[in-house]
């Protein structure tokens, strides 16, 4: 029993931190741009497949490939999503959401066409290829690294939003857009910045989780669902809520996996989210601000 | 001697003391009658091409899903991003009862209606609890969870490979007759839905529905029982969508969660609603035919069609008249837009 408890605690922290990394960019866009980015799954697909493209077809090393991939990610987020979709359809959200999903489906199908599952796409980003044993619970070092990266990236983001002037402007925009405009905030520039900032955590996430999570063209779908669930549960666009919700979902997944059967963990998380929504309509932190 | 007179908007034909007028602009023609007549005579031209008949049958079924969805959007003031949930519930209810208990299609139809009604009633409070985008997100997640369930209990639902061998609705000796019969049945189903939804929108209920859509608080103040309307307009279209699932089960005799429950299918239906003209009931029919023909034509491209299809859908949304889709090409005057608004951005 104590072993199961220990497993639940350890995996709550690990999965919670990874989920945090998955959902951070999504919550950021939701909080700053006030839109629901249903094309968010593209980031994961591009992170894996563009890196693989540079490594396999251009014969570059891992680090240069990752560097170039981040450039492609930023260009895609700014030119396709922001300039192409968000700016044009900001006031017609159903069109915006539908086009975002379609862009995601097009990219996922393109990845599947170019590199089907049989192509064996993998990112060799394992840092320590070993397992750690704590009280009879074995954990991959790579998972611990992923969790550590998740906590670190979130801490940097939170500190940056709280302590810097640009962070203050972004928080102001998220709290009250007209007031921020009156105060002279360059909203358009901040939106660009938010788009770039939203791409970084999921990209880092994909790189560090690829060795144990696996890569397939449609993985973006399940990761998008996780990000959405966390964002809804935490309160749309609230980073505090996202942090709490990530660990809550991590706890639910860990508990269901180790006490019952792992195949029910997705269903259990959804039921909890629905129940929370019924009793607390806007999620755990329903403040509609970034922090 | 017949006298023909060309006026600004019409041609007038006179013969002795009789006069006939023909309005030139197509939007004033009896278009519903012309459209239905075209759909009725369509099999005469393509009866020897079963795959084309199947494509048109699919188009009718897409329209039969999109029309109640449009009604639901108008009536609840919410955008449902998961209409395929009830398609899955209806389809699986019919398929499982038919396969495991040997129920006839008539009995499975009754069961489908009952199950969809009960589940829709249970879920209908979401229309009251969740506003705007929250409702859309819950409805987006629900069918994906159901898809998950069909994988989890794969021995019952066979979510990935599908259930096969259900009883057909009709069987003829000649196979080609089956295709024609199913086309007409699907057309009948779609037209019945259109008639029901059109009558509802044009009735007194439709006026209250528009008021709820416009502003719930004002509607409530004017004496409209908003909650009852919202529950009704969530449950009734859900049952209609469930019946389409039943129809698919007994027509194609195969039903798989992986075909009807994922996001790909949902986007197709949403695009039909948007391209057809943002919740205009009649727009769903040309929208459905366009998407179905496009989907079928692209299959010839091979595996790359999965990538090209979403791109063409994006192009359709971007280049068709903003907000009015195909309906906008047909009707130049801008009609009242009752498409509910999604609000994440605060007013």
Helix content of chain B: 55-70%
SSE pattern of chain B? EEEHHHHHHHEHHHHEHHHHH
CATH fold topology of chain B: ABC transporter involved in vitamin B12 uptake, BtuC
The greatest interface between two protein chains, and residues involved on each side, is:
A-B, 41 and 45 residues
Radius of gyration of chain B, rounded? 22 Å
Radius of gyration over C-alpha positions of chain A, nearest whole angstrom: 19 Å
Helix/strand/pairing class of chain A, anyone? mainly alpha
Output the CATH class name of chain B: Mainly Alpha
Q: What oligomeric state do the depicted chains represent?
A: heterodimer
Q: What is the CA–CA distance across the termini of chain B?
A: 66 Å
- Give the integer mean of the pLDDT values of chain A: 89
CATH architecture grouping of chain B: Orthogonal Bundle
Strand content of chain B: 5-15%
Describe this structure in words.
The complex is a heterodimer of chains A (291) and B (347). Chain A has 291 residues and is mainly alpha-helical. Chain A has a single domain (2-279), classed as ABC transporter involved in vitamin B12 uptake, BtuC (Orthogonal Bundle), CATH 1.10.3470. Chain A has 11 helices and 2 strands; from the N terminus they run ααααββααααααα. A two-stranded antiparallel sheet of chain A has the order 1-2. The model of chain A has no long low-confidence stretch (mean pLDDT 89). Chain B is mainly α and 347 residues long. Chain B has 16 helices and 5 strands. In chain B, α2 (50-76) packs across α9 (204-214) and α3 packs parallel to α6 (132-152). The longest helix of chain B is centred in the middle third of the chain and has 28 residues, at 175-202. The radius of gyration of chain B is 22 Å and the shape is globular. The mean pLDDT of chain B is 86. At the A-B interface, α4, α9 and α11 of A face α6, α13 and α15 of B.
């Amino acid at each position: 029993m104590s072993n199961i408890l220990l497993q639940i605690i350890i995996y709550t922290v690990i999965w919670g931190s990874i989920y945090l990394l998955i959902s951070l960019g999504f919550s950021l866009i939701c909080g700053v741009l006030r839109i629901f980015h249903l094309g968010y799954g593209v980031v994961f697909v591009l992170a894996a497949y563009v890196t693989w493209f540079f490594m396999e077809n251009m014969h570059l090393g891992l680090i240069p490939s990752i560097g170039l991939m981040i450039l492609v990610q930023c260009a895609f987020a700014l030119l396709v999503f922001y300039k192409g979709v968000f700016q044009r359809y900001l006031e017609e959200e159903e069109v915006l959401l539908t086009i975002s999903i379609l862009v995601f489906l097009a990219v996922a199908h393109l990845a599947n066409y170019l590199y089907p599952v049989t192509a064996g796409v993998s990112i060799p980003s394992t840092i320590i290829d070993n397992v750690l044993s704590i009280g009879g619970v074995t954990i991959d070092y790579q998972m611990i690294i992923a969790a550590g990266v998740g906590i670190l990236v979130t801490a940097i983001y939170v500190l940056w939003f709280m302590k810097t002037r640009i962070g203050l402007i972004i928080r102001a925009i998220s709290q009250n857009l007209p007031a921020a405009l009156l105060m002279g905030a360059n909203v358009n520039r901040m939106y660009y910045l938010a788009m770039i900032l939203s791409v970084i955590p999921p990209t880092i996430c994909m790189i560090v989780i690829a060795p144990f999570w696996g890569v397939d063209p449609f993985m973006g779908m399940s990761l998008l669902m996780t990000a959405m669930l966390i964002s809804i549960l935490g309160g749309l666009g609230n980073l505090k809520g996202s942090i709490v919700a990530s660990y809550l979902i991590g706890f639910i997944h860990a508990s269901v996996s180790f006490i019952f059967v792992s195949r029910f963990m997705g269903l259990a998380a959804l039921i909890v989210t629905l129940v929370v929504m019924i009793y607390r309509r806007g999620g755990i932190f329903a403040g509609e601000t970034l922090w | 001697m017949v006298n023909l007179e060309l006026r600004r908007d019409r041609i007038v034909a006179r013969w002795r003391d009789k006069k006939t007028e023909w309005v030139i602009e197509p939007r004033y023609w009896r278009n519903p009658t012309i459209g239905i007549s075209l759909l009725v005579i369509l099999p005469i031209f393509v009866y020897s091409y079963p795959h084309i008949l199947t494509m048109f049958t699919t188009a009718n079924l897409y329209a039969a899903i999109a029309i109640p969805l449009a009604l639901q959007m108008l009536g609840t003031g919410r955008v449902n991003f998961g209409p395929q949930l009830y398609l899955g519930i209806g389809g699986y209810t019919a398929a499982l009862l038919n396969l495991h208990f040997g129920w006839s299609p008539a009995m499975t139809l009754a069961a489908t209606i009952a199950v969809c009604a009960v589940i829709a009633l249970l879920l209908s409070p979401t229309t009251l609890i969740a506003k705007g985008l929250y409702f859309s997100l819950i409805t987006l997640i629900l069918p994906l969870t159901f898809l998950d369930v069909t994988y989890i209990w794969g021995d019952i639902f066979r979510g990935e490979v599908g259930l096969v061998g259900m009883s057909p609705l009709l069987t003829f000796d000649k196979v080609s007759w089956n295709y024609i019969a199913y086309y007409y049945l699907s057309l009948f189903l779609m037209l019945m839905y259109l008639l029901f939804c059109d009558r509802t929108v044009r009735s007194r209920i439709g006026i209250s529905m528009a008021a709820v859509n416009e502003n719930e608080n004002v509607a409530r103040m004017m004496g409209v029982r908003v909650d009852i309307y919202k529950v009704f307009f969530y449950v009734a279209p859900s049952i209609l969508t469930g019946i389409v699932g039943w129809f698919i089960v007994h027509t194609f005799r195969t039903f798989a969660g992986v075909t009807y429950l994922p996001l790909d299918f949902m986007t197709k239906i949403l695009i039909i609603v948007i391209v057809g003209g943002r919740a205009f009931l009649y727009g769903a029919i040309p929208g459905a035919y366009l998407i179905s023909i496009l989907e079928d034509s692209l299959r010839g491209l091979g595996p790359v069609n999965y990538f090209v299809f979403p791109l063409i859908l994006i192009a359709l949304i971007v280049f068709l008249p903003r907000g009015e889709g195909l309906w906008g090409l047909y009707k130049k005057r801008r009609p009242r837009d009752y498409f509910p608004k999604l609000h994440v951005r605060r007013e």
